[in-house]
Design brief:
- There is one protein chain.
- It is built from 12 helices and 13 strands.
- By secondary structure, the protein is α/β, with parallel strands linked by helices.
- It folds into 2 domains: about 5-200, Rossmann fold; about 220-390, DNA Methylase, Chain A, domain 2.
- The protein has a 7-stranded mixed sheet, with helices on both faces. The protein has a two-stranded parallel ribbon with strand order 8-9.
- Strand 1, helix 2 and strand 2 (about 40-45) form a beta-alpha-beta unit.
Length: about 400
Amino acid sequence: MCYTDVNSWVKSKMKPLVLDLFAGAGGFSLGFRLAGCEIIGAIEIDKWAAETFAYNHPNSPVIQADMATITEDDLKELCKNQKPTIVLGGPPCQGYSVCRKNAGDPKDPRNNLFKELIGVGSIFEPELLIMENVPNAINARTNSQEKVIDILNKELTEIGYYVYVEIWQATDYGIPQIRKRLFVIASKTNLENPFPSPTHLAIDYNNPSLFNYLKPCPTLWEAISDLPPLEAGEGAEESDYNTGRINDYQQLLRNGNNTLFNHKAMNHSKRMVERFAAMNLGDSCKDAPEHLWPRQRNSTAIAKRVYDQNNRRMYPDKPCHTLPASFYANFVHPYQHRNFTAREGARIQSFPDSFRFLGKPTVVSHKLLAREGRKEEKYLCQYNQIGNAVPPLIS
């Protein structure tokens, strides 16, 4: 039997059951839940991300554990002996270099986190196994120069799957963010069209096309303009919305929500606010007057080198740049002299406003925390959780 695409396959089944590995805060799961699936279990190593998942998926059990330590019995107990129809997995990109000591080539997926996904596929034999990763994963090679993606294809084929690989651009599906990601679909059934066609187009409003029939992708400003304006240090973990007209994208993500979560601006210094105020759209720190450049570490002297990818003021009439895990230090609000709030990042990632992120908004570097023995803070903060997530509307 050949299905035309994954959506029609899902619609042809009764409530597909989903198991989410490397679940993070739960963006991948949320998309499948919104599509009518039931999330029967999740595994996530990070404490704060697992707490966020549990809060927002109250009917889905989540185990906070390292996937490498999970046994077959653990998996079956988590799923209450149900067989998942779909297994999701977004192994961290560090998975290409993370492996057990003396396990061989660290770039070989059989020796790293992808091995766990393939192992779960062997145990449950789900109808679909869907993986997400950074686009560069498609070019990764082992030490013997064998392509990682070819090994994955071979391993999955050997356990009975048809394998499909494609790199997606988030703006093609209505996400207001230039974000490319690799998706791998392994299916027990041969799929004629495993990937959906683009639904949106990122329009250059200075040169709009007269001949496209796709919806315009929302811009950054269309994603966040209804959120209350904040100065540095203002806002709260719970606050009220502004009233006023909202657009379709904002309406979709508000979805009748009454409380605004995670909309708190960072506590910038007066000097940093002055630096941001001196920056025009598209500028970064290095475009600010030199006396406002960041200072050298542990010194009052002005830094001799400033990285232009840090603290760039985003254009309001375009999609945002890719949100990394540390996006709190990457982007400046188009009009307000501060970095994005966690909620603004969540909007750019297409999380609904009802989705609340737990844990601290930000933490200092994990290297510093480890050095100082502050293990209780060495978790993924709200910004990390958001930047690491699969956008739910993509999912």
